[in-house]
Automatic annotation (TrEMBL), chain A:
Its main location: membrane. Keywords: Membrane, Transmembrane, Transmembrane helix. It is a multi-pass membrane protein. GO terms for cellular component: membrane. It is found in: Membrane. Residues 17-366 form the ABC-2 type transporter transmembrane domain. This is ABC-2 type transport system permease protein. The chain crosses the membrane at residues 19-38, 225-248, 260-281, 293-313, 325-344, 350-372. GO terms for molecular function: ABC-type transporter activity.
From TrEMBL, chain B:
Residues 17-379 form the ABC-2 type transporter transmembrane domain. The chain crosses the membrane at residues 12-34, 189-213, 234-256, 268-289, 296-318, 359-381. Its main location: membrane. It is a multi-pass membrane protein. It is found in: Cell membrane. GO terms for cellular component: plasma membrane. InterPro entries: ABC-2_transporter_component, ABC2_TM. The keyword Chloroplast does not apply. One of its GO terms (molecular function) is ABC-type transporter activity. The keyword Membrane applies. Keywords: Cell membrane, Membrane, Transmembrane, Transmembrane helix. PANTHER family: MEMBRANE COMPONENT OF ABC TRANSPORTER YHHJ-RELATED, MULTIDRUG ABC TRANSPORTER PERMEASE YBHS-RELATED. This is ABC-2 type transport system permease protein. The lineage of its organism: Bacteria, Bacillati, Bacillota, Bacilli, Bacillales.
Length: 380, 389
């Protein structure tokens, strides 16, 4: 009997094209839009050699030291500047006006910088000029104190730049913040799955739909009918989420870290969470379907917003200033689980998220059971 | 005009849900515009950009303190708890871009010419990383040189010397170019975001009415009325245009309330003109959708895809300069792209001669072309439908 109900519920659900659209196609489309809009954001952050110019006047030609330093930082793979040499000031200004360069240096008693805007590239240029000026001021003050320093290889030491910082990675994964958008998208898709759960509960409450009235007539234990139906809903949602995951991973090349098994497990738990959430809300709200849909929609959207789907830093702000809200938001739990899997080497935080989700699932399921059980309809 | 009146009735009956839409999207528009604008607020004098740095020092020596002070010139220090996950979180969400850890015994090692290194955790290859590196490396390299060539100087003296050397800064001239008042203003972001708000509100509102009229029995009833199809259509279009005009006026009025300063400029006229043309375009698109779709559920799906999609790829949510060229090429097949293009150009207008305006009018004409195309298409489809019915 269980299989029978399961199969027919499955057929019944999968024919609801609208639900399939919202739970499968819509997240895929949104993921595609995300990909198109955000794929370049990380490149924007990457350091590119700055387009800078220097005015090649007589002062610059005589200032051999500055000249050689400029040439030094403008060659090689890790160069700081993409240097252009302007034959005179007018030319440099023309380039600046046309946005061909970010700024230009002029040599003289002090090095001067001319820019058009304030920004990080301009600040780097200024820091560079500051550094040059500071080094010469240091040489002057050392020589004043200790004239022999020059013979002792002061200039040599100056040129012999030593690196005092080494890069250590925080974890095995890169801090690619765009990923959070995709993680919260999957979380949203799981919670959209609550519509399946809602449909299940609606279809066993005889006072709400005709179909439920018919089902209630049948000599089948209600819990059995409900469980079989919920399983069908869960299977559909889980497969949908897997399709979405596969599309993101292999179609759009979104990274999920190396622990594929855990990612699939998270998808499964997320699906259960979605279905049980929908069932619970649907059982709790006695009024019409419109209100139920609106509630699920608002809850999912608000949850997604708070976990950073529209504005990424939201997730961090919530975690920093209102931590309880982060733990009580199912969308955030799911997002954070994916994030923890990708970003952390330890599974501690992931386990916490998963545990919290289990608590939610138990709460929703018990709630639904207590509300739906033993409901009799004397007349409808 | 019975059809017109009926349309008004339908609008009035749905006014709550429609005004809810207007209110929600308005709130989002205002929030987003505000948050983007504050980042862009730039003064006219040069101020050094500050990187967000977390400095964790395992020792406290005069040199590390001096270093902290010098680094503060180019960085904002962010206080973070020294736990791996907290640090990693902050880096992921760009609350800091550079985490620097000074190990114990580092100062002494530098002064003795040793090879100990500090540890940094950064967003790999980022610009801010390069920026902070310059300043960090310099300080310690100088300390090393002082220690070598003035061996008698105490640590405090070195710090003092360094402070003296590092004070003063390179003179920077800002070539003050003419900057339009509306550049990067609230108005610019608001009008950009209007593309999303207007699309959502108009497609929802207009299709709601159209779907009522397209109900099979109702449309059959209308066909056998003694009114000419042309008259019915004209009234429908008029009613929809009125709705569009009112929504547009409300949305523009809010911009006036929130950023009245920009309203004193000439640029705003072009913003308004541009958005009016866009409104016309989206109205005819909504009319087309209304003619094509039969039920409300399908409509909300179509509405979502058609409003979100073009907005994502044409630079409403993420500015066009951050999008890659292929995406922009695809986007140029949507009116939203041209609307945003025109907006960006209008915002930076300082002269209002034909040569400056040409590109703007070009974009506007394209949007107008889209409007006419959608409109013609919906007339053809409407006609076909009538014949089939």
């Amino acid at each position: 009997m269980f299989t029978h109900i399961f199969i027919y519920r499955f057929k019944c659900l999968i024919r609801d094209k609208q639900l399939v659209f919202w739970t499968l196609l819509f997240p895929i489309l949104l993921g595609t839009f995300f990909y198109m809009a955000f794929s370049n954001l990380n490149n924007e952050e990457t350091f590119q050699p700055i387009d800078a110019a220097v005015v090649n006047d007589s002062a610059y030609q005589h200032d051999t030291q500055f000249k050689s330093v400029m040439e030094n930082v403008s060659k090689g793979k890790d160069r700081l500047f993409h240097l252009k040499v302007a034959s005179n000031r007018e030319e440099a200004e023309k380039w600046l006006k046309k946005d061909k360069i970010k700024g230009f240096f002029t040599s003289g008693e002090v090095i001067k910088l001319t820019v058009k805007d304030t920004g990080i590239s301009q600040s780097i240029m200024k820091s560079f000029a500051d550094q040059y000026r500071t080094s010469s001021s240091m040489v002057t003050s050392i020589v004043k104190e200790n004239p022999k320093a020059l013979q002792n290889g002061l200039l040599n030491d100056l040129g012999n730049h030593r690196t005092y910082v080494k890069e250590v990675t925080g974890g095995s994964a890169e801090p690619n913040n765009v990923l959070n958008y995709f993680y919260s998208l999957i979380a949203m898709a799981c919670l959209y799955g609550s519509f399946w759960g809602m449909k299940e509960v609606t279809d066993i409450q005889a006072d709400i739909t005709d179909r439920a009235a018919r089902v209630n007539m049948a000599p089948v234990h209600k819990l059995k009918a409900f469980l079989a139906g919920s399983c069908a809903a869960l299977v559909i949602l889980f497969v949908e989420i897997l399709i979405l995951l596969a599309y993101l991973r292999f179609g759009l090349n979104i990274s999920f870290g190396n622990r594929a098994g855990f990612v699939v497990l998270t998808a499964l738990v997320g699906s259960v969470l979605g279905v049980s959430f929908g069932a619970f809300i649907s059982a709790l709200v006695k009024k019409g379907e419109g209100l139920k849909i609106a509630l699920l929609m608002v809850a999912t959207m608000a949850g997604s917003f708070l976990s950073g789907m529209m504005f990424m830093n939201m997730k961090y702000l919530i975690a920093a200033y209102v931590p309880p809200l982060a733990w009580l938001n199912p969308v955030n739990l799911l997002t954070d689980a994916f994030y923890a899997l990708y970003y952390y080497d330890s599974l501690h935080r992931y386990a916490l998220n998963l545990g919290m989700m289990f608590l939610f699932i138990i709460f929703f399921c018990t709630g639904t059971y207590l509300i739906v059980r033993r409901r009799k309809y004397a007349s409808i | 005009m019975p059809v017109f009146k009926l349309c008004m009735k339908i609008f009035l009956k749905n006014w709550l849900s429609i005004s809810l839409y207007v209110a929600i999207f308005l709130a989002i528009a205002i929030m987003i515009s505000m948050s983007t604008m504050s980042e862009q607020n730039k003064s006219s004098s040069f101020s050094q950009e500050k990187a967000k740095v977390a400095l964790i020092s395992e020792e406290k020596t005069p040199l590390t303190e001096g270093f902290r002070q010098e680094l503060a010139k180019s960085s904002d220090f962010v206080k973070l708890p020294d736990r791996t996950e907290a640090l990693q979180d902050a880096l992921f969400f760009r609350n800091v871009t550079y985490i620097l850890r000074i190990p114990k015994g580092f100062t002494e090692d530098v002064l003795n010419g040793g090879s100990m290194q500090m540890e940094k955790t950064v967003v790999p290859n980022s610009t801010e990383n390069a920026y902070v590196d310059i300043n960090v490396e310099q300080y310690w390299n100088m300390a090393r040189i002082y220690a070598k060539h003035e061996p008698k100087a105490s640590e405090q003296q070195v710090v003092k010397q360094l402070k003296k050397n590092l004070s003063g800064s390179t003179p920077v001239t800002i070539k003050a170019h003419e900057r339009a008042q509306t550049a990067n203003s609230f108005s610019m972001y608001y009008f950009n975001f209007l593309a999303y708000t207007l699309s959502a509100v108009l497609i929802m509102g207009i299709s709601t009415v159209m779907i009522v009229f397209n109900k099979r029995d109702l449309s059959r009833r209308n066909f056998c009325s003694p009114m000419r199809a042309r008259s019915i259509n004209t009234q429908l279009i008029l009613a929809n245009l009125l709705f569009a005009a009112i929504s547009w006026a409300i949305l523009v009025a809010f911009c006036f309330l929130l950023d009245s300063k920009s309203f004193a400029t000439q640029n705003i006229l072009f913003f308004i003109m541009n958005s009016a043309i866009f409104t016309a375009c989206i109205s005819s698109l909504s009319y087309l959708i209304g003619n094509l779709l039969k039920n409300l559920n399908a409509m909300s799906a179509v509405c979502n895809v058609l409003t979100l999609g073009p907005c994502f790829i044409s630079g409403v949510f993420v500015p066009q300069e951050f999008l890659n060229s292929t995406v922009l090429k695809i986007a140029s097949f949507t009116p939203t792209y041209w609307y945003v293009q025109a907006n960006a150009k209008i915002a930076t207008l300082t002269h209002f001669e034909w040569s400056d305006l040409e590109a703007i009018f070009y974009s506007m004409v394209i949007v107008l072309g889209f409007a006419i195309a959608f409109f013609a298409l919906s007339l053809v489809i409407g006609k076909r439908k009538r014949l089939i019915n």
